[in-house]
Amino acid sequence: MSIMISIDADRINSLDLSPVRSAIEQWLASGAIAQNEQQLQFEIEYPREELDPREISEIPEVRLWFIRLDACYPWLPFLLDWKGGELARYAAMLVPHQFHRTQGIQYNPEALEMFLMSKIFVLTDWLNQQGIPSKSKLMAMSQMFGYDLEDAFFDVIVPHK
How many of the other CB atoms lie within 10 Å of CB of 19? Predict the structure, then answer.
């Protein structure tokens, strides 16, 4: 079951993260963060001119809101509904890209690699702190962006106890 958080133009323009913050803080306080894995979706209401050809991820104000969100919750991809396209849209908010009519979204390859590796490092540490097994989740996330990480990579970055 997906969890929808609505974000309107006022919240975007004021960089107000309160709808997300209240949900996440409640899950953290109640110890329910793991139960909300891959369930979060955003409904973004941002007015555009009728003939504005830009995708929502190409609007600077919307991207800035997501940059702020990512700075506050760098482990947010854990919560995003990957199957519903939220992880790809989240990446589009943070990674330079272009849209092609036939090929869809095309991320800048170097920027995507940097974004992905940053998320792998952040999520590895955060998931370990939460006591949540991470290797298979992170391998699946990297595969969504066309990267295959070797098992040996996780031997290097996962803290040994």
Answer: 14
